[in-house]
Amino acid sequence: ILGAASLLGPAQASAEETPVSVVADVIASEAEGASLIRPNIFYRLFGTDAYTFIEMYSDDKNYFGKTILGKELGSGFSATGEYAFGSDTTNRAGLGVKYSLPLPKGKLSVKLFPVWFSRDGYDKHRVHAGYSGSVDLPAGFEVSSFGECNLAAANGPQWGYGEVFAGKKLGKHVGVYGGALLRDRSTDKENKLDPGIELAGRLSYFF
Fold first, then answer.
1. What is the mean pLDDT of the chain?
2. Helix or strand or coil: residue 140?
């Protein structure tokens, strides 16, 4: 599992707006056991923009989370690091860079994490690349998406995870979205870089 991350994370919020902001997502998936609850916390930590999320799945057994730190370097570039943890993944920390590009009615960012460490030391089979972005549409609607892959997996480049949703906020606190989860469809014999599509809906509550 590579997990989720959007502009800073899935919920399209910013730690710059308030010292701490929280968005809770409930995602219903068409796949059995794949629905989840995901609290997202945006905050400042040691002069960096920080974001932590944890996904708790409907099978009541598995979870996955990340803490992501970013520090602006100028000209759209940020130094970034993340720590990933979960019930069925190797806990690991990565270091990389992100480039953010403002769009006329949205934003886009790409990231590259070439350095990863776990309890076993340096991981030569892990170089993550990812994207995230959103576009504002008429009548208050928006489309957002994120995803990432591992370019250095042992059996060739491998898709990790992503999401794409379209919808709008209904008032100040509630957002309703429809779209898909972009899942890894690799097998034991062959890695896949193109994702499988799993239909899903998302309800977000902005505290």
1. 89
2. helix
